[in-house]
Design goal:
Keywords: Membrane, Transmembrane, Transmembrane helix
Largest sheet: none
Number of helices: 4
Distance between the termini: 19 Å
Subcellular location: Membrane
Number of domains: 1
Protein name: Glutathione S-transferase
CATH architecture: Up-down Bundle
Shape: elongated
CATH class: Mainly Alpha
InterPro entries: MAPEG-like_dom_sf (IPR023352), Membr-assoc_MAPEG (IPR001129)
Helix content: over 70%
């Protein structure tokens, strides 16, 4: 049974809703129904939201599989925290004007390290 992953899924869902709300507010303000209205600032908000949507689900899937295979709780928390903090850091860095490149880079590094560690853990746990 999953006991830890749902916590990080909840945190990431709240982050995604917050990022989506930023896009919706900009859509309403710019009166843009589809696309980005050729507005660089709006495109930036859309990409922040989309980047979260691209990475968070895969990270959560790997996290859940590792937890279900019996990964120790502290490890699941460590990976979940890396994913969440990585996504927050990336969103802050990419979503700021001007961009905060260091935050964006830290976010991607945390996310990629989490994905690689979770992938390797899943492979290891599946062959035991």
């Amino acid at each position: 049974m999953l006991e830890i992953t749902p916590f990080y899924a909840g945190l990431l869902a709240l982050l995604f809703v917050a990022l989506s709300a930023r896009v919706i507010r900009q859509r309403i303000a710019a009166n843009v129904s589809i696309g980005d209205g050729a507005d660089a600032s709006f495109l930036q908000r859309v990409r922040v939201q989309a980047n979260c949507a691209e990475y968070a689900p895969f990270g959560l899937l790997l996290l859940a599989m590792a937890e279900l295979q019996g990964m120790p709780g502290w490890s699941v928390h460590g990976l979940g925290a890396m994913l969440f903090l990585g996504r927050v850091s990336h969103a802050v860095g990419l979503g700021s004007e001007p961009q905060i490149m260091q935050a964006r880079q830290v976010g991607m590094v945390l996310t990629f390290v989490m994905l690689v560690l979770a992938a390797l853990a899943n492979i290891y746990l599946s062959i035991l």
